[in-house]
Structure formats: C-alpha cells, structure tokens
Amino acid sequence: MKSERLHRLALDRYAAALRAGTATPYECLRYLEQRDSHGHSDREDLRYLAAVALVRHDPLFVATSVFGIGLESLTAADIDACIAAWTIDDDTLRGYLEAHLRLAVRALRLDREQLELALAALERARPAYAGEVEFLELRAEALEHHDDERYPPAIDAVIAATDPEWRAHPLRKAMSHAVALEHWLRYDALRARWAELPRNALCCECHTNFVADIDGLRALARGDVDEALRCLDAAVSVGGCPHLNSGGASLRLARELLDRRIALPQVAEHVRKAAQYRVTDRTRALTRELAERLG
Ligand SMILES: [Zn+2]
C-alpha cells in the first residue's frame, strides 16, 4: 500500500518548484504524474505551466504520455511557441506530432483555423504515417465537428482499418454523425454493418443503449411511432456499465418525442428509468419539461 502522505509530500515539493519558476522537466513530469494518478486536484495554473514546459521540451510527450497532461488550457499562441521550440529533423514526424498537439487541446478543437493547421500537419505526416489507424483517427477527429462532406469518408477509413472486434467505437461515431445530419440512408448502411459485428466485439451496455436510442430516431423519421416506442423501451432495458454510470444514457429519442409531443407519459417513464444509470443535466432538463407538460 502506497502512502498517501508521501504522495502529498511529493506533489507539494514539485508544486513548490513550479511556483518558484525553477521546475526542471523531471519535476514537471513528476508533478503531473502525482497530481493525476493519485487523485490530487491542486492548482490548475500549475498543471498548465507543467504541461507547456513538457510539450516544449519533449515533442513526443503529447503523443506518448500515459496520463492526463493538462493541455485543456493551452492557447493557440502556446502551441505555436511549443512547436517553434521543437528541434526535429524529420518533417513527417514533426507534422504528425504537430497534429497530435493541435488536436489534443480540446478548447481549440472547434476552432476552424486550428483544424486547418492540424489537417495541413497531417498531410505533411502522410508519407510516413498514412498506414496507421491512429493517423486516420486523428484525421477523422479533426473533421468531426467541421466538415460534413469530408468526415464520412474519413471515419469510414477508420472503420475499415480497425480490427472487427474493436470496430464498434468508430462505427458508433459514424452513426451518430449520420443521425445528427439526418442522413438516413447512410445510417441504414452503417446500421447493417453494426449488425454484422462479430460476437467477440467490444460491445458494452452503453452501445446497446445508444443504438436502440438512435434506431428509435430512425423509426420516427420513417413515421413508425410504434417501433420508435419499442426502441425507447429497449434503450433503458440494459444493465449499467462504467460509461452509462458516468456519462448517463442517450436521451436523443426522448428529446425528439417530447419536442413532437408524442407519448409523453411513456417518455416520462423512460427518463425516470434512464436516471437510474446517472442523472445528468439532460435528464434534469427533460424531467422538468415533462413535468410542466404533464402537469
Ligand atoms: Zn459502456
């Protein structure tokens, strides 16, 4: 059993070095390691300082670190400064790491300029890395929120390159995107591929919940309300899993039914059952609106 007291001592020591502005890359790394792997939540500004120092010092850090590295609050200027400080002769590797860094900063992911810079960096990496699933995943990730035309072929390439037993995850992303844009024919084709996933595929209960939920939306789009309500029931007839228990159940079908004022008592029952996995802001909003509607 490791001593909590000693972990705290270590964290305080590296935090003091960061605060004094004298932290070495070793101390920055130890600070992030202790902070993340032992549940300490110390100051966000120290996490930020440590992350910037490490990404600047070690370009491979952003692509290979095994724990959370606190990139959330980096700015576009921080990224440019880090990349400018890198000494890497291999331009394909440089491009690949640059794309990793630009796409790792979640706050900037929705920024179109960052997206184009990340895609340009990936193009520089292409000659050496295009055969890797991770390269295709990064490209799809970059396009997911920005480009309705380039995203489907990009995620299809990820699905094709992923081993069948791991294919559920990218398929789910592709299906979600198709549903959001109401591209129902594409959804039907992807759904057929979902049905073909092998028995040993990594299929968690949250996947079953998710697919039933969007199958219901598909049925509604066809005008088949009975089928939509059957899907509504199926979506919450699953056991919990770590993802459902932390992120909550999909409630897109419930939202659609409520907006269309269809079967509200059943929708209310569905939302009540969904709350057994986890109560989220979505659950609360739906519960409140349903209570107002149903009186
Ligand atoms: Zn799950």
Oligomer: single chain
DSSP, total strands: 0
Radius of gyration: 23 Å
Q: Summarize model confidence as the mean pLDDT.
A: 91
Content of β-strand: under 5%
* Secondary structural class: mainly alpha
Give a list of the ligands.
zinc ion
**Low-confidence region ranges:** none
Spatial gap, N to C terminus: 55 Å
Total DSSP helices:
17
H-E order = HHHHHHHHHHHHHHHHH
Task: Summarize this entry quickly.
This protein has 295 residues and is mainly α. The protein is built from 17 helices and no strands. Helix content is 69%, strand content 0%.
Structure description:
It is a single chain. It contains 17 helices and no strands. It is globular. The protein has 295 residues and is mostly helical. Helix content is 69%, strand content 0%. Bound molecules: zinc ion. The site of zinc ion has 7 residues, from helix 12 and helix 14.
Name its key features.
about 300 residues, binds zinc ion, mainly alpha, 17 helices
Describe the protein's topology:
Elements: H1 4-19, H2 25-37, H3 44-57, H4 61-64, H5 76-85, H6 91-104, H7 112-129, H8 133-144, H9 151-161, H10 168-180, H11 184-195, H12 205-222, H13 225-235, H14 242-247, H15 252-259, H16 264-274, H17 281-294
Helix pairs in contact: 1-2, 2-3, 3-5, 6-7, 6-8, 7-8, 8-9, 9-10, 10-11, 10-12, 12-13, 12-15, 16-17
Bound molecules: zinc ion.
